[in-house]
Design goal:
By secondary structure, this protein is α/β, with parallel strands linked by helices. The protein has helices spanning about 10-25, 40-45, 65-70, 90-95, 110-125, 170-180, 220-235; strands spanning about 1-5, 30-35, 50-55, 80-85, 100-105, 130-135, 135-140, 145-150, 155-160, 165-170, 185-190, 190-195, 200, 205-210, 215. Strands 2-1-3-4-5 form a 5-stranded parallel beta sheet, with helices on both faces. Strands 10-9-8-12-11 form a 5-stranded antiparallel beta sheet.
């Protein structure tokens, strides 16, 4: 199932896109869970995470091109398919990494071509992402970029590969539950580590690919050793 965002100020056009997505889903044995917003402001206020965005350009207030640029400041991964009456915007769409560009009236044929390309991008970037509500705004981060997550006094610190850490309020227990099927392992009361980033594992510590050394607590050592051994043995 693909969580899909439609941003379109005309109700009839939004319904048409929804119906065409359902037709595509039926033909390809998949499903689209659609959320519709009638303005760019509604889209930018939405705190949800989506796999795909169909975005009208000509809307009152903030137009779709401006909204896409703002969207890219916190989500670099989501494929954007622009829908518009004016083909002149096509080139400009690539400035914000557009995956597709459809000139109205939308037909199943031209939507299918863009969806094929967009869903290939989704699968390429598949894996998980984390939505992190920082003080500077929401950030959507690929899980593969997360080296570890630490907590201190209800404050989570996300250590990222190639970036400065991000900080947000939250519960490590809740994050652990949300990532139960991800390659994360609890190595102490206050730290979750991404097993894909382990470079060296020693008796009481693990060295990560970015050079960080994480301490494994005595109470977690056995479980960590078993989990990491099973994971690495099955994946590498």
């Amino acid at each position: 199932m693909y969580k899909t965002l439609i941003v379109e100020d005309e109700t009839a056009e939004a319904k048409r896109l929804t119906d065409l997505l359902a037709r595509y889903g039926h033909a390809h044995q998949t499903e689209f869970k659609v959320t519709w917003h009638s303005s760019a402001m509604e889209m930018l206020s939405d705190k949800g995470r989506y796999d795909l965005c169909l975005l009208d350009i000509q809307m009152p207030g903030i137009n779709g091109m401006e909204a896409a640029a703002l969207l890219r400041t916190y989500d670099e991964e989501i494929p954007i398919i622009f829908v518009t009456n004016l083909a002149k915007y096509a080139v400009k769409g690539y400035e914000v990494g557009a995956t597709g560009f459809i000139v109205k009236p939308v037909t199943y044929g031209n939507l299918q071509l863009s969806l094929d390309r967009a869903l290939r991008a989704v699968e390429k970037n598949a894996g998980r992402t984390l939505t992190i509500p920082t003080e500077d705004g929401v950030r959507v981060v690929p899980l593969r970029q997360v080296v570890c997550i630490e907590v201190m006094k209800h404050r989570l610190t996300y250590h990222l590969e190639g970036e400065e850490p991000l900080s947000a309020r939250g519960s490590l227990v809740q994050i652990e539950e949300e990532l139960a099927d991800a390659p994360m392992v609890r190595i102490s009361k206050s730290c979750l580590a991404n097993m894909d980033h382990i470079q060296v594992m020693r008796s009481q510590e693990m060295q990560m690919a970015n050079g960080e050394v994480l301490r494994i607590s005595r109470t977690h050592k056995r479980a960590v050793t078993e989990r990491v051994t099973d994971y690495l043995g099955g994946r590498r």
